[in-house]
Design goal:
The protein has a single domain (about 10-180), classed as Rossmann fold, CATH 3.40.50. By secondary structure, the protein is an alpha/beta fold. It has a five-stranded parallel sheet with strand order 2-3-1-4-5, with helices on both faces. The chain has helices at about 20-30, 40-45, 50-60, 60-75, 95-105, 115-120, 135-150, 165-180; strands spanning about 10-15, 35-40, 85, 105-110, 155-160. The longest helix has 19 residues, at about 135-150.
């Protein structure tokens, strides 16, 4: 399927780890009633292990392959409207960025580094941050990923100072215009 054949139907959340994708995804799910697909949770359930364990046992590339396979599976024109929350690194592959845009309205939740560092420092399940200097790793990853998020996204939302309800309201207002233009 390509973007011009069928209007995209889902709201897809992208952004760095700790940017609020899962939280905002749950808020959007509650408001719209659309099924919520948290890609990281789906991959963990199917693998029967955590993302950290997948990274440790099989490597990052295997995890990235699973992300791409799941995006291809989700790219079903007969599927219902959904809220899709992605992993932070899903935008690393060009094929994934194209698939994301085919799936629907792609919203980049952009959080400042201080917020990311605060949120991720509390979670030991972040395999990419198992390093002596998580702040330097976050800064480097954010710098590398920023143009990729920008390329994939229809909308960038700066999350600083906003809670999930405020973010969901803004996303829904913007999505209404997006979907109206594609009908």
């Amino acid at each position: 399927m390509n973007e011009s054949q069928t209007p995209p139907k889902s709201i897809v959340l992208i952004g760095f780890m700790g940017s609020g994708k899962s939280t905002v995804g749950r808020e959007l799910h509650q408001r719209l009633g659309y099924p919520l697909v948290d890609m990281d949770q789906v991959i963990e359930q199917r693998a029967r292990k955590s993302i950290a364990a997948i990274f440790a046992d099989e490597g990052e590339q295997v995890f990235r392959d699973r992300e791409t396979s799941l995006l291809e599976e989700l790219d079903d024109p007969t599927a219902p409207r959904r809220i899709i929350s992605t992993g932070g690194g899903v935008i690393g592959r060009e094929v994934n960025r194209a698939l994301l845009r085919q799936l629907g309205y792609v919203v980049w939740l952009n959080a400042p580094m201080s917020v990311i560092l605060d949120r991720t420092s509390k979670n030991r399940e972040r395999p990419l941050l198992h390093t002596d200097d998580p702040a330097a790793k976050i800064a480097a990853l954010m710098e590398t990923r920023r143009p990729l998020y920008d390329e994939a996204a229809h909308l960038r939302v700066d999350t600083a100072g906003l809670d999930s309800k405020e973010l969901a309201t803004g996303i829904l207002e913007s999505a209404r215009y997006f979907f109206t233009g594609h009908l």
